[in-house]
């Protein structure tokens, strides 16, 4: 296996914490008192600390939540022309959660934000941010007039931060990490552009006419996989989920392939040709890269079925024949043979062994 990236996935640069605290200070709140009340492990204003020092995103979330509560503003600390009232993001989410596809959701979100802008007396913006370019790609243009251009002093850091948040939210909506082709920024290239490339996960172009994502257009056709119930759980933990990378952002080849297959294994697996097309590579390249992982496409399919089989067999309410059907086997006997090949046990023997382990681990009754 290839070594994992040296980048941490659960941090934000210290300078973002400083920005949030500066917003509170500008509104008359004492940042030192705020820091003390949050019991943070380090002082964001330590003069000896490098602004790029990574801090745990959990602590950034604590700062963000407290500042938003104090200011009653949901604008992600962007210090916009006027505050975004508490509850705005939630209402936008409720407006789009029942959309059929990501494209529908993005268009409705643009309409919602355009409406919010109009009732606050600000100039209107385009509600058509998506353009399919006809080459398997699509462009999503940020209507930055309602986010960023009202304050031209905001730097490229803030623009990129906002775009990363929005990509993570879109990825959450469809249950798949959105791998971008490229990002276009109106700002100039910084001295060290590696951080932007890291958090956006693609090549970044500067001095462009617009701030935009270029993404594979098949993401636009992906259905939304969440409900109002899962949305409520998501909102309880926001903005942490929007500030940090997750397992869904693992860009390794095997992780991307798992996301393409999804959790419904009752359907036929994509052929190796279809998988290669989804990954934007040739079949030959896919097989060569799988060889780097010391595996084959068939072994990938078997391992994925094994992972799901074990997970479902650990749910005692599911009958073994039901697990077989969930895995896409036409006959339960075929599932039994395959599972024994994978683990050395039949599904029934595996369940019995787990039950026995559970009893042995249980405390003795007095």
TrEMBL record:
<dbReference type="Pfam" id="PF12833">
    <property type="entry name" value="HTH_18"/>
</dbReference>
<keyword id="KW-0804">Transcription</keyword>
<dbReference type="GO" id="GO:0000976">
    <property type="term" value="F:transcription cis-regulatory region binding"/>
</dbReference>
<feature type="region of interest" description="Disordered">
    <location>
        <begin position="345"/>
        <end position="366"/>
    </location>
</feature>
<keyword id="KW-0238">DNA-binding</keyword>
<feature type="coiled-coil region">
    <location>
        <begin position="276"/>
        <end position="303"/>
    </location>
</feature>
<dbReference type="InterPro" id="IPR032687">
    <property type="entry name" value="AraC-type_N"/>
</dbReference>
<dbReference type="GO" id="GO:0005829">
    <property type="term" value="C:cytosol"/>
</dbReference>
<dbReference type="InterPro" id="IPR020449">
    <property type="entry name" value="Tscrpt_reg_AraC-type_HTH"/>
</dbReference>
<dbReference type="InterPro" id="IPR009057">
    <property type="entry name" value="Homeodomain-like_sf"/>
</dbReference>
<protein>
    <submittedName>
        <fullName>AraC-like DNA-binding protein</fullName>
    </submittedName>
</protein>
<feature type="domain" description="HTH araC/xylS-type">
    <location>
        <begin position="255"/>
        <end position="353"/>
    </location>
</feature>
<keyword id="KW-0175">Coiled coil</keyword>
<dbReference type="InterPro" id="IPR018060">
    <property type="entry name" value="HTH_AraC"/>
</dbReference>
<dbReference type="Pfam" id="PF12625">
    <property type="entry name" value="Arabinose_bd"/>
</dbReference>
<dbReference type="GO" id="GO:0003700">
    <property type="term" value="F:DNA-binding transcription factor activity"/>
</dbReference>
<keyword id="KW-0805">Transcription regulation</keyword>
């Amino acid at each position: 296996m290839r070594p994992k990236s040296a980048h941490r996935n659960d941090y934000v640069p210290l300078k973002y914490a400083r920005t949030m605290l500066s917003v509170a200070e500008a509104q008359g709140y004492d940042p030192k008192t705020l820091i003390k009340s949050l019991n943070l492990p380090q002082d964001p204003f330590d003069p000896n600390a490098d602004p790029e020092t990574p801090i745990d995103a959990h602590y950034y979330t604590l700062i963000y939540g407290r500042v938003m509560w104090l200011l009653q503003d949901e604008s992600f600390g962007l210090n916009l022309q006027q505050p975004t009232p508490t509850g705005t993001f939630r209402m936008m989410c409720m407006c789009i959660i029942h959309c059929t596809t990501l494209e529908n959701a993005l268009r409705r979100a643009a309409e919602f934000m355009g409406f919010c802008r109009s009732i606050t007396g600000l100039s209107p913006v385009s509600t058509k941010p998506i353009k399919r370019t006809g080459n398997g790609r699509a462009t999503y243009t940020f209507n930055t007039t309602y986010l960023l251009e009202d304050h031209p002093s905001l730097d490229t850091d803030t623009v990129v931060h906002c775009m990363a948040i929005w990509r993570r939210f879109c990825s959450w909506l469809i249950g798949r990490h959105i791998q971008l082709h490229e990002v276009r920024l109106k700002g100039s290239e910084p001295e060290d552009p590696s951080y932007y490339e890291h958090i956006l996960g693609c090549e970044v172009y500067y001095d462009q006419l617009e701030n935009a994502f270029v993404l594979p257009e098949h993401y636009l056709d992906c259905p939304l996989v969440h409900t109002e119930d899962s949305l409520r759980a998501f909102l309880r933990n926001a903005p942490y989920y929007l500030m940090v990378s997750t397992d869904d952002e693992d860009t390794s080849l095997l992780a991307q392939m798992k996301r393409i297959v999804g959790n419904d294994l009752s359907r036929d697996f994509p052929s190796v040709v279809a998988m290669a097309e989804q990954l934007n590579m040739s079949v030959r390249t896919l097989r060569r890269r799988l060889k780097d992982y010391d595996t084959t496409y068939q072994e990938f399919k078997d391992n994925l079925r094994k992972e799901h089989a074990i997970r479902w067999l650990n749910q005692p309410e599911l009958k073994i024949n039901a697990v077989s059907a969930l895995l896409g086997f036409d006959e339960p006997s075929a599932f039994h043979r395959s599972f024994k090949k994978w683990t050395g046990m039949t599904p029934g023997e595996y369940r019995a062994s787990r039950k026995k382990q559970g009893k042995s681990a249980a405390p003795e009754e007095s």
